[in-house]
Amino acid sequence: MNKLKDSAKSLFEEINKHSYELPGDVSVIVAPPALYLAEFAKSSTSKVCIGAQDVSAHSEEGAYTGEFSASMLKSAGGKYAIVGHSERRSYHGETDALIGKKIKACIDAAIIPIYCCGESLDQRESGRHEQVVHNQIKEALNGFTADDLASLVVAYEPVWAIGTGKTASTEQAQEMHKSIRNYLADLFGNEFADNVRILYGGSCKPSNAKAIFDQPDVDGGLIGGAALTADDFLAIISAAHK
């Protein structure tokens, strides 16, 4: 929930302006506040896709005041939706069961879901971080097949590193991404796990992006505060080139 319309538009235009200079092997997604989404989608370049920061678990139209469906997102020009972000979990009590319904709603509407998972500081310090994340994944993806989830993107968010200035070390990021990939292989097979994109989200910035993205199981980033400055976001995108 950042930026009034004029400043948000200026930021987006700056990203758009430089988009053709960015690496061709990097996918760029901008997820603005929902109020700006349709307008930004109209002016987006072919290099920059538009996503939503959240989406409803309800697929059908109806009396769900304040919500928008994945099909509405699609009709407005959106291609991606972030589901299960740690702030949705902590501020709005979202469970993995609910998040699983949002994933299904996205798949049904041909929206690519970006599923967020991650542990708190207490959970990491007690040595339960892998178990916590595996349990989140197991519950959210329960009932799906590998074919169902062919477009799924996973974002690992160490909650203790979001907005705190703390960042997981490159070793910690790689360890968790590898653990997630191995667990997805157990659930859906090696081919699925090899092809799924796993993003790192946790105080990623220009100064550490390349070291994090160079890890073999890190496929990109879910960028928060650093994306509010065009120069920083563009630098992070450039660092994702492999």
Task: Characterise this structure.
With 242 residues, this protein is α/β, with parallel strands linked by helices. The protein has one domain: TIM Barrel, CATH 3.20.20.70. It is 45% helix and 11% strand. It contains eleven helices and six strands. The protein has a six-stranded parallel β-sheet with strand order 1-2-3-4-5-6. Helix 2 links the parallel strand 1 and strand 2. Helix 1 (5-18) packs parallel to helix 11 (230-239), helix 5 packs across helix 7 and helix 7 (129-140) packs parallel to helix 8 (170-188).
Please, how many domains? 1
- Corresponding CATH superfamily: Aldolase class I
Overall, the morphology is: globular
Mean pLDDT: 94
Query: How large is the share of residues in beta strands?
Result: 5-15%
Question: Structural class from helices and strands?
Answer: alpha/beta
CATH topology: TIM Barrel
Going by CATH, the architecture would be Alpha-Beta Barrel
Number of strands: 6
Span of the ends, CA to CA: 31 Å
Low-confidence stretches: none
Biggest sheet features: 6 strands, parallel
